[in-house]
Amino acid sequence: ARHDWIAYHYGKPDTCEHCGKSGLKGIQIHWANKSGYYLREREDWLRLCAKCHGEYDKRGGGAKININFNG
What we know:
Largest sheet: 2 strands, antiparallel
Number of helices: 2
Order of helices and strands: HEEH
């Protein structure tokens, strides 16, 4: 339901904000939460392709942790 809200209000992204890959659809592109609190604010979300979202989560990007995704 949280991801449905963000998609309803901010659309379905087709370009990854990290690697820039575009033309993505369905399960290829995700709304990734930054804070772990799932705030209803655009600034609390990233548009990431599945590969970058996996890397982001692996590096501790979500779950109430703020890190530099590039680091």
